[in-house]
Specification:
The protein has 2 domains: 125 residues, Tetracycline Repressor, domain 2, CATH 1.10.357.140; 121 residues, Four Helix Bundle (Hemerythrin (Met), subunit A). Helix content is 73%, strand content 0%. It is built from 14 helices and no strands. Helix 8 crosses helix 9 and helix 9 runs antiparallel to helix 14.
């Protein structure tokens, strides 16, 4: 459980921002926007991708803390504005609904197929919040949402609106599972005390770390080896760097079991994967 406490006198805008899970929301939005620029969506297309993904991520983040408020209070989560009383549940509910409402037109602005795919990804995130995080299928929403993100980007490319290659979808799914495992690691004990029994909780910290390393490394390997042609020196060097990051993300931290460093390293590895993909110069559509 994180030790960083939310100031009790934090104003409503600050508390609302903290309850939105801003770091993962901005990271996912930034990666999707960069991918949109790489495939040639243009400034307007990149803006539409950013607005759609950000609104979807905000909806997922606010709904997560709203649904979990009672559990977070029992767990003594000092990093949660709703749990410490700096944000009213009604405010989080209104913010999540507003973000979800905006996500619909922003998503369909990229086209009907792209809109449906992105809303399916957002629905996967909401299903995790509402129910699946408590089951052995907790990994599935992450895998589906991360796999569909590149599809949302490429399906907005007029006039062809193509699906991305299968290896890119597979890499996204693997990256999503790794992100799930590293995100849950710091909270396993607190979650178990509240009856949460997702996949990482059933595996335990040790096996979850090992699986996180394997899935994150597998995602990088697919991105390096999946496109046609030889990876070259840049690809192999990048894969070695990805292996180092995946290993570091999965290392135990006895002094700080609540550290968010594994999840931060997973985000860094995602950015590295995107760079490797762009350096390969692969046609993603």
């Amino acid at each position: 459980m994180p030790t960083e406490a939310v100031p009790r006198r934090a104003g409503a805008p600050v508390a609302l921002l903290l309850a939105a899970h801003p770091l993962p929301a901005l990271a996912v939005t930034g990666l999707a926007t960069a991918l949109a620029a790489a495939v040639g969506r243009g400034p307007a297309g990149c803006l539409l991708v950013a607005l759609a993904v950000l609104s979807g991520q905000l909806c997922i983040g606010w709904s997560n803390d709203r649904i979990d408020v009672a559990r977070d209070v029992r767990a003594g989560r000092r990093d949660k504005p709703l749990a410490v009383g700096t944000l009213a549940p009604s405010s989080a509910t209104a913010a999540a609904c507003a973000a979800g409402g905006l996500c619909v037109p922003f998503s369909f602005a990229s086209g009907p197929a792209a809109g449906l795919v992105h809303l399916l990804a957002v629905a996967a995130g909401l299903s995790y919040n509402a129910a699946l995080k408590r089951t052995g299928w907790s990994w599935a929403p992450y895998a589906l949402a991360f796999a569909l993100l590149p599809a949302f980007v490429t399906l907005g490319l007029a006039p062809d609106r193509p699906w991305p290659p299968g290896w890119l979808l597979a890499a996204g799914a693997l990256l999503g599972v790794g992100a799930h495992l590293t995100n849950v690691l710091p909270d396993i004990e607190a979650d178990l005390a509240c009856g949460i029994r997702g996949l990482p909780h059933r595996l335990g910290p040790g096996r979850s770390r090992a699986l996180a390393a394997l899935t994150l490394l597998a995602a990088s390997a697919v991105l390096v080896l999946g496109p046609p042609g030889a990876p070259g020196a840049t690809g192999w060097t990048g894969l070695a760097a990805a292996a180092a990051l995946a290993t570091a993300a999965a290392l135990p931290r006895p002094a700080r079991p609540d550290s968010r460093l594994p999840f931060l390293l997973a985000i860094a590895l995602s950015a590295l994967d995107l760079v490797l993909l762009l350096l390969r110069g692969t046609d993603l559509h």
